[in-house]
Amino acid sequence: MRGDGDGWVVGENGTRHWGKHGAAGLLLRAPSPHGEPTVLLQHRALWSHQGGTWALPGGAKDSHETNVHAAVREADEEAGIGVDNVFVRGEVETARMASGWSYTTVVADAATQLDTTMNGESTELRWVPEDMVDRLPLHPGFAASWPSLRISPLRVLLDTANVLGSRPDGWWRDRSGATGKLLSSLAGTLPRTVELPGVGFGWLTRIEAVLEGEARAAQFEDIRVPVIHAAGSGDDELASQAQASTTLTALVTADRGLQQRLPTSVQVLSPSTVLGWLG
């Protein structure tokens, strides 16, 4: 069934869009050697539609494909990145026409800037720093969607006790040891893109873990997960940290009492969402 999506959809005004079943592209981020976010962009071959502009690897979606499958397949065909190296974080419909044609941007991360191999659809593939993307001559469709796709620096505060307590894995037998194991596992998920409903995407390089009680004895040290020792209540420390924050902030907790103490600008992530990163 491969290839049944190739073809143009023509709208009432004569505008043409590639992909009989719509199209999808891959917005793939990876940290630079200095940890800053970069995006894999494709300089489109002159013979292609809107040739000479920069855009995401992508193309027509076949009838049997999901958006994710189509975007990753197309990116692998056009850039040779290898599907096993791609970790999907979300998807956004970034264009829809009256004809029914749509374009979906699949947002994903790679652990490092992957080696690439061009096919005939590109004149160059480049890892571009996030803040340099809009300085290139972009494909009009990508240029229109880029403001909604770009990331903001994100601060995440971790209600460590609440997250630890959400898993019945015997953590209570060695609270400090279980805390160290949890934080070490979370450190291994960074850096990463995080989707925040209604806000967009954040780039996360650190998770600030608040520890209270016996958990303060945890033997753990990693700059990706700095530890804050609460002098008293962990909830009090978390609320204080959130109220003093001046950047886009999310707090990981299922504690409704704590959530009610947070500024409205602070996003709440459930423990299950963050623990899902470990998979």
Topology, pairings included?
Elements lengths: L7 E3 L5 E3 L4 E9 L5 E8 L9 E2 L2 E3 L6 H13 L7 E10 L5 E8 L12 E8 L10 H10 L1 E3 L1 E5 H6 L9 H13 L4 E5 L3 E5 L2 E5 L15 E3 L4 H11 L4 E4 L3 H4 L7 E3 L1 H5 L4
Parallel strand pairs: 3-8, 10-13, 11-14, 11-16, 14-15, 16-17
Antiparallel strand pairs: 1-2, 3-4, 3-6, 4-5, 4-9, 7-8, 12-13
Molecular structure report:
By secondary structure, this protein is α/β, with parallel strands linked by helices. It contains seven helices and 17 strands. It has helices at residues 67-79, 140-149, 160-165, 175-187, 234-244, 256-259, 271-275; strands spanning 8-10, 16-18, 23-31, 37-44, 54-55, 58-60, 87-96, 102-109, 122-129, 151-153, 155-159, 192-196, 200-204, 207-211, 227-229, 249-252, 267-269. Strands 3, 4, 5, 6, 7, 8 and 9 form a seven-stranded mixed beta sheet that branches. A five-stranded parallel beta sheet has the order 15-14-11-16-17, with helices on both faces. A three-stranded mixed beta sheet has the order 10-13-12, with no helix packed on it. The mean pLDDT is 91.
